[in-house]
Specification:
- This protein has a 6-stranded mixed beta sheet with strand order 1-2-3-4-5-6.
- The chain has 8 helices and 6 strands; from the N terminus they run βααααααααβββββ.
- Helices cover 33% and strands 15% of the residues.
- It is an alpha+beta fold.
- The chain has helices at residues 14-28, 32-41, 59-66, 70-78, 93-100, 106-109, 121-136, 139-142, and strands at residues 2-3, 160-165, 170-176, 181-187, 195-200, 203-207.
- The longest helix is centred in the middle third of the chain and has 16 residues, at 121-136.
Length: 226
């Protein structure tokens, strides 16, 4: 899945901007058949707002606003839509459905944590964002990016997210391990697959991706190499 934190529409090329706008228009207009056709071709778009991120409304937020039928919202969730994702105003899809009186969607849209972030989660996210700022150098200073929250990582057993950064010629792949967030900073200019980091509530540090992982916790299934 993709997190789009780019706030400058002019940074997108023409054909991509047109397709993303078309996707956002379909969600705004409740054209669910057309939207699912586009999602079939672009499965990573489930949580993308309109380019420029003015309102931050994704397809799930629009479905909540319209009071879409239960099967439509279920299908969006099956495509990986995040219940925890917030608009620029801080509202989740369930908040919008509640405000609009669409009670048939409230239980379905209530966020469910399949996994837990290492506690305290606010410290974990603070260090995650600190790593992003440090690893991008001047990129964030030159172009505004909305930093990704970690809450979507709790919504599935194996959620993996890519955050593109303008000026980096790449971005960050990140996912939740059993006691930390694994981050891969990758650029097309890198030799190999970039740098890897472990982020915990205590801080972050660079790691060797070929290292042997620690032994599994008692009763846990063996973990693959990190």
């Amino acid at each position: 899945m993709n997190w789009d934190g780019i706030t400058d529409r002019e940074r997108f090329n023409g054909w991509y901007l047109d397709e993303r706008d078309q996707f956002a228009d379909m969600a705004r207009d409740a054209d669910w058949n057309g939207l699912f056709q586009m999602l079939g071709k672009n499965p990573g778009w489930a949580n993308l707002p309109r380019p420029g991120n003015r309102s931050g409304f994704t397809a799930l937020h629009q479905a909540a606003w319209h009071g879409a039928d239960f099967p439509v919202v279920s299908r969006l969730l099956a495509h990986g839509a995040w219940r925890t994702q917030r608009t620029r105003g801080g509202r989740r899809a369930v908040d919008i459905a509640r405000e609009r009186g669409h009670t048939h969607l409230l239980e379905l849209l209530e966020p469910v944590a399949v996994r837990q972030l290492p506690a305290p989660s606010d410290a974990l996210e603070h260090h995650f964002h600190s790593l992003l700022r440090e690893a991008t150098g001047r990129c964030f200073g030159e172009i505004e990016h909305l930093l990704p929250p970690l809450s979507p990582l709790t919504e599935g057993p194996s959620v993996k997210i890519f955050f593109q950064v303008i000026g980096m010629m790449g971005g960050f792949f990140y996912h939740l391990e059993y006691d930390h967030v694994h981050v891969n900073a990758s650029s097309r200019m890198d030799y190999g697959d970039g740098d890897h980091y472990r982020v915990t509530p205590q801080g972050f540090f660079k790691i060797d991706e070929t290292r042997v992982p620690p032994p599994p916790l008692p009763g846990a299934a063996p973990r693959p190499p990190l």
